[in-house]
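Ticket reopened. Same input as before:
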Amino acid sequence: MTKNPAKGDKQQKQQSDNKGMTRKPGTSITEWVVAGISSVALLAVLSYLVVDGLSTRDGTARIVVLPLAVAATEGGYVVEFAAANRAGKSVAAVEIKGELRNGDEVVEESSATLDYVPQKSQRKGALIFRRDPEAYDLRLFASGYSEP
Amino acid sequence: MAPTEIIVRHAPTPREFWIGLGRAFAGALIFAVPVLMTMEAWALGFHLHPLRLALFLAITLPMLVLLHKYGGFRQTVALRDRVADAFVAILVAAVAATAVFFIFGIVTVEMPLREVIGKIAVQVVPGSLGASLARAQLGPSLLEEEDIPEPGYTGELFLMVVGALFLSVNIAPTEEVVLIAYKMHPWQEIALVVVTLALMHAFVYEFEFRGSHSPEPGAGFASIFFRYAIVGYVLVMLVNLYILWTFGRTDGAGFSETLSAVVVLSFPGALGAAVARLIL
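Engineering reply: fixed in the latest deploy. New output:
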């Protein structure tokens, strides 16, 4: 503690060496500019959260499952899908089901579970069928979820 | 050599080198052990995007080199020595993580190389930071105190970023971060931002500026708040956004959800940043 003033002097000297100019304690224009930009960024974040907080949130999740691609593998036909949650509510343990239909008859079923599908976000997964989905009517849907 | 570089007095003797290396191993283990024993961090090994992981490691090296300016596991000094020390820190962290993973049975010889490398690489960032901090933490400084350069404003911000990175990297792999983000309402997120900022300011202002580390004697409340707490917090959020992106937590997530996760992770991150000057 007793040597603080001396240390302060030394460090001021080093800082001025570092920057090649004398640095007044507490203020430099660059530092205030950085502080200003940061304040604006922080206010933007807070404003966004306030707007988000004021907007009404849906009580239910709206999950839309869309097939992305089908690949034939040794283990069967892999149907990749994207499950998008269009609502402002995050859900967990989302059960995704897929059916291959021939008219009204369900030929084959498959299911997968997504850990989380956050609000206004999408998660990808895949279902595996033994029969070629191209030859049937493929239906993908979410059959349930739990609150995180 | 820049004028602020310290002139090395003597190269370390073999004994000093081994002691330094031992401390580095201890530091790497202590600082990496929470991530070493986190299941999600093991899984990152195979689902992390290889290029993102490569970038993360590439950033670690210059960060360690800079960090060694303010303290390393031996009295480093010239840039060349600091680069060498950074590589040693990374190697020590990798060796420590590999050894622990083999003993735990998490890494086995049958595993594909890609997965082994991924698992260990995730551990290298906290481990190498720990190895670098080991001198500051576990051993007395071999340098005279006056010889360690006091960081200027950018140096202070850099140490904040390292502090944030260090704590966030320990917590970011866990599922709890996103789970808490899902559970929180925007009002709770605002409260978390305010509390984090207040804590950060209290730590920086009360413990550092009025304590032994004061870089700016006599600086006022507003000056510290705007130039350190707010700037520091925004930097912490950017660091955390980068970490979450690296770990693939932002993929497919909407803006609102990403922001929530960043705010949640910034709580530990800001604490790390605020006390960085005390522990680094």
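Residues 113 and 119 of chain B are 10 Å apart (CA to CA). Chain B touches chain A through 45 residues (CB under 8 Å). Please confirm and we'll close it.
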